Structures are given as structure tokens and as C-alpha cells.
Amino acid sequence: MGTQLELLEAQALQLTVGERAAFAQLLLASLDEDAEIEEAWVAETERRISDIENGTVQVIPIAEALAQVRAALK
Q: How many CA atoms lie within 13 A of 57 on its CB side?
């Protein structure tokens, strides 16, 4: 009989790619010692998504954004 880790690994590999990605994110997040910072990033991300969905901010295509950055660096 395998170890608990081997059993968990075998079960995890049976998940779909999306499920494995979500599981990996959960595991990585569990290693983060500062939950307050993580919560702040979640809140900031949600705020930014809301701003975009509500039309509060204007988004620009990545090609245009990169062109602006390159022009500013010249």
C-alpha cells in the first residue's frame, strides 16, 4: 500500500486539467503565510473586474498598451 501522498497524487491525476489547476492553486495558496495580503489581492482583482464590467474604466488592446509603453521608453 502506498503512502498518503502517493494515493493523493494518483487521485489528483484523475481530475480534469481544469480541476487539477484549481487544486494546484488551492495548494499553493495554502503555503502563503500572509492571508491578509492574499485577501487584499482578491478584493483588488474583484474591484478591477467590476470597474471594467461597469464601464468605469476604459480598457485598451494589449498591442496599443505596449506601443504606448515603448513610446514612453524612447
A: 8
The single-letter code of the amino acid at 10 is: A
State pLDDT tens for residues 7-16: 999 999 999 9
Three cell numbers at 36? 491578509
**Residue labelled with grid coordinates 468605469:** 56
Lookup: cell for 42: 482578491
- Identify residue 9 by its one-letter amino acid code: E
Distance (Å, whole) CA 40 – CA 58: 23
* Distance (Å, whole) CA 47 – CA 41: 10
Domain ranges of the chain: 4-73
Alpha helices in the chain (DSSP H): 4-12, 17-31, 35-54, 62-73
Query: What is the per-residue pLDDT for 31?
Result: 81
